[in-house]
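[job 4471] stage=fold_predict status=RUNNING
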Amino acid sequence: SNDSDYSFTHNSGTFVSKSDGVYFTGKDRDGEDKAPIWLCSSLRIIAFTSNEKNNGWGRVLEWEDLKNVTHTWAMPMALLANDGGDVWRELMNQGLLITNNQLLRVRLRDYIQMSKPARHILCVNRIGWHGDTFVFQNHPDLNIVFQNSFGLESPFSQAGSLEEWTKNVSQLAQGNSRLVFGISSAFAGALLDSTNQESGGVHLHGASSTGKSTILKVASSVWGGRDFIRQWRATINGLEGIAALHNDGLLILDEIDQCDNPSKLGEIIYMLFNQQGKTRANSSGVALPVATWRLVALSSGENSIVSIMNQAGKRSKAGQEVRFADIPSDAGENMGAFELLHDAATPNAFATALNTSTTRYYGTAGSEFIEYLSNNRTVCTELALGYMKIFTDTHVPKVAQSQVLRVSRRFALIAAAGELATDAGITGWKTGEALAAAARCFNDWLISFGGIGNHEEKIILAHVRSFIEAHGSSRFESVTADRSRISNRVGYFKFDKDNRKSYLIFPEQFKNVVCKGFDFKVVEKVLLHHGWLQKSERNDGVSKQRIPDHANSVRMYALTNKMWLDDELSESDTSSVF
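[job 4471] inference complete, writing structure tokens
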């Protein structure tokens, strides 16, 4: 509707939308028109909305602020249920001028609610893929819009041309595994849906001034400017809302060391990568829709996720470490995150050039990639799966455990995304650049993770050995007659005929002390599997042993000396209790 001639009659008056505002003309007692009353600055209602289930009705509103910048908001009608205060607050926040008269605001509410625009637009409650359409934000020229309770500012923005971005950002990343990997990560989220991959993240850790921030800025430039980078310093609820805004895309979280609550970091990781928020209810107790998303996350900080959790008194779990893979930001060439400086004199000069370019050229690569995928969805999916297979076949050990395989699929997806963007003519890289960068980063992760074996088993074995190393002399008595009595005893130690030391542990002490923080049955299985625990006649870990002060044999956990012979889990041993 044109804002200079749109009008309709409702109840006792007429609404007219003009270039200088929306007016209401009422009737006096004699049925004559009163003087028009100004309600707000020009506000156009260009479409009505509803979702695929014929719910979520709304209106698409459009207006200009005092700088003549156009704003668009797909507003849920439910916000008008009471006094409309949430609507006025949001409209005013985005520059619309509204009358202060509360009675007239009732008229403005009627104007929005009773208008009947001719056009209908399908609304969705999250950005990202909906069928073969990728919804960025409210674009009324499309047949689908993102409708949210508040006019959340889109994280996407653009500056400069794609050619300028490719020349000044992407091509300078070539030869630098972390930079190429970061850019590839930015494209990867858009492939999660079609390739049926799970969400996951990569955390870059290292000392300050090693280039971590540059990696994030280069990655963010695929979709937007510096505002695209979010901070770890947020509540769980806040991060939940941010994740929903980055659905089918890249979520960048900087400075994990400033996490609002480090003790909740493990909980945050599960929330982010289990792909849905908390179930909530309205004031009547009715469950509200749960926010959902799919995304790839890129994070940075001076410390690793494991280190931060340990400092907060929390033990990291393999599930968390698999969902958020830790890799060092330092590429190992004595240049911080960089391996190739191109024409820059120093790593600092190279970082400065990249940082400057990312403030000038951004956002075009992401939109170009989405257009490429939209026009070639089936072919791109097949190509992506093919690139993933190449990565897996080439760089993932055949005997790797399931935890390593899960992470390898994320690195493979990131590699595939970078190769697809190269095929689309976006990156300016040579074929294979993204695959090589992802392979380098995956190998660095594999080394820090502890190899191809099962990580949970290694944690358990290290925990048990650490307990014996710390308390082998202070909490174990000798089984010999001349032993020294100790308090707080957990068991005994003895020597075999070859003078090799082993330990006997009381069952309750094994469960409650040695296995503290773990499921003792899982620990028992792991120790039996690796020969660290003597197997009983019942094929469990509790065997009959002779100990002092007992006439008959007593069932004890008997740790063998094999724990001292195993320097680490053998990488060729692919069997597992998990």
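[job 4471] summary: The chain has a mean pLDDT of 88.
[job 4471] exit 0
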